[in-house]
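User: Let's play a game. I give you a shape written as tokens, and you guess the letters that built it. Ready? Here's round one.
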């Protein structure tokens, strides 16, 4: 007997929940051939503010967790993503083989960053020589709430910009790829069913031009990753807005997401605390 398929309604991911946009808006998502795939929520400025509130609320607990624990959680996310490999390949678009390879690369990227969770402090921290009877120690600490404009690559690129932000103890608000948001929302479902606390990653779908400047200007956002911004004027406007509270800004760059990522993205959103302590006599 024939039956109607149940069409999925794609929502936002804020604070560990899946709300609709407060504006009630949505936009159609189409395939590369122009075929209709689904409707995705069109996030508003209010949704962006709600996401920042959720990220700030989650920050003390996440940054206070041990680095080893954060690595375990990222590894669990990789496990969950591996378990939904076929679904992600279907939503990735393009050829089936290429899509599966992209999903596999995203899983490997999560495992790679998970392994760095308790090692980055050794790379970024130091015991500094000083001319006096003191210990002088530098240690990395997370910046805080980071706003991320995700690149067009709907899965590997997304994982490659989000994982280094959260593995070092930051929380984030992510603007997903505007033309290809479905893999991002499905990744949010993976995050919601893993051990990642609600609010650590908050995901918005919608227009870059509408959301990015408000996140850049938000006074409770501490860092801004503009990797996915392709409009030079929009990138410049976001940088100007971010200067108001001296946000750390990562400018748009063309990257090969299949290459070795290095540690640059992890260290970009870290602060360094230096402590002086007198030596015993």
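Assistant: Ready! My guess for every position:
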């Amino acid at each position: 007997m024939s039956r109607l398929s149940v069409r999925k309604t794609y929502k936002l991911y804020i604070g560990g929940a899946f709300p609709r946009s407060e504006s009630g808006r949505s936009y159609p998502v189409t395939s590369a051939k122009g075929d209709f795939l689904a409707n995705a929520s069109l996030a508003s400025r209010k949704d962006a503010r709600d996401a920042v509130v959720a990220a700030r609320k989650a920050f003390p607990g996440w940054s206070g967790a041990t680095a080893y624990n954060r690595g375990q959680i990222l590894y669990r996310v990789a496990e969950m993503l591996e378990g939904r490999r076929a679904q992600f390949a279907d939503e990735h678009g393009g050829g089936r083989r290429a899509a599966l390879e992209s999903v596999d690369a995203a899983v490997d990227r999560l495992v790679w960053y998970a392994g760095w969770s308790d090692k980055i402090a050794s790379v970024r921290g130091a015991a500094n020589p000083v001319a006096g009877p003191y210990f002088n120690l530098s240690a990395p600490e997370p910046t805080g709430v980071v706003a991320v404009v995700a690149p067009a690559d709907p899965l590997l690129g997304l994982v490659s910009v989000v994982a280094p932000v959260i593995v070092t103890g930051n929380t984030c608000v992510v603007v997903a790829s505007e033309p290809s948001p479905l893999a991002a929302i499905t990744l949010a479902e993976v995050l919601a069913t893993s051990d990642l606390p609600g609010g650590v990653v908050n995901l918005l779908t919608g227009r870059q031009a509408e959301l990015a400047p408000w996140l850049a200007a938000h006074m409770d956002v501490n860092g801004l990753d503009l990797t996915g911004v392709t409009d030079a004027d929009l990138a410049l406007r976001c940088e100007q807005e971010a200067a108001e509270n001296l946000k750390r800004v990562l400018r748009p760059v063309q990257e090969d997401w299949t290459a070795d990522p290095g540690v640059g993205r992890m260290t970009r959103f870290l602060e360094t605390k230096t402590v002086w302590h007198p030596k015993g006599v």
